[in-house]
Amino acid sequence: MTGTSSRPKLGDPPQPGQHSIFPRGYLPAFLLTVSIFFIWGMSNNLTDILVQQFRKSFELNLLEAQLVQTANFLAYAVMATPAAFLMRRFGYKAGLVTGLVCFAIGLLMFWPAAVIGRYAPFLISIFIVGSGASILETAANPLVAQFGPSDTSEERLNLAQAFNPPGTITGVLVGTWFIFSGVDKTKSQVAAMKAQGTYAAYLHAEVLRVVPTYIILGVVVLTLALFISRSNFPAVLDSDEDAPAGGSLAAYGRLLRNPSLLAAVVAMFFYNGAQVSTWSNFIPYLRLYTPLSERSAGYWLTGSLVALAIGRIVSTPLMRVFHPARMIATYAVVNLLLLLVGIGHPGFAGAGAILITSFFMSIMYPTIFALGVKGLGPDTKLAGSLLVMAIVGGAIFPPLVGFVGRLTGSLAVGYSVPLAGYVVIAAYGFFVRPTAASVASSVP
Does residue 13 lie within any of the structural domains? Predict the structure, then answer.
């Protein structure tokens, strides 16, 4: 059921004197979609906890531990295009349900992976979780961008993404409380346990600590999939009435000739690389350069996510005054300067500067995404898949930080990797055209 003739259309312009962000007549479906932003935010930042936990449980170096992020975000490059074709054939709702079910399967697989007690099964489970998240992001972001008047798409997507930071905060707090044991063994204690033959059992117990959190989250995700499968979504968003002729291959040809979209894809790659590598290396940075415990470092990571949430709340209304692209350029320059402090002054001063970068990350992802798909009409699903594929930057940057850290002997210097990402983002924000090209301008 998609509504009656008296129901307002999603794309209807607001009435004179009104500034419309929410979809007219479809608020329940919109809110169900927005709830997904909380879920994948929670899961994505639990991986930051897993980097530290698996580093201890499997006795890994930082480069090996960052394969957690590689497994998670590599799935975005693999699954985004199949997800776009799925939604082009069956619609956004099918994409949401499929993504949630895949997501839940990966979460529930943490139990057998923990019983096996090897690193590789966890990486496979994380890849499946990332596959589900990739499908969800390919569906939810363009869906929200189109879920109302075009002229407020950036604000609407920033509003939906505002539910992501509470999820990330919840994920880190849950990981800090229920995954981290708070037990840090000294070298002499480890040697004594090895001599007594109890160290292997201790490490396996640390591995098992991840299971309850991931099982509970898997059940929650399956429940949300059930609710969405039984809900009505507007069919108008899946209509191909106005689609140019030629099918998906022709659509990709148009998109690959659209400079606004391609610039957004490049910016998205470098942004996600910068974001994920900043957060996933933050606890190791704190443990190396400050006397903080594992759990205390987890609270600092939580603080960075609170800063992200505050930044989104403060910054979204400013888009009515300042052009969104110019805002992300300015924010990128500020983050570049803050990371210079983190690199040059490792310790509490540098950690504080790195924490503050999260405030200025706040609007980057949703704004780049909304600018990239703006005006693309029936090609929005495929354009969204290209932007989601660019999230693979989160798979490449974190181990690269670990590699630079090992090469130079300084994890602080490794933060030059996300710094380079902000140079590209600043260039994008300053040089992108203020008015995104429409699909018509990219058709030969």
Answer: no
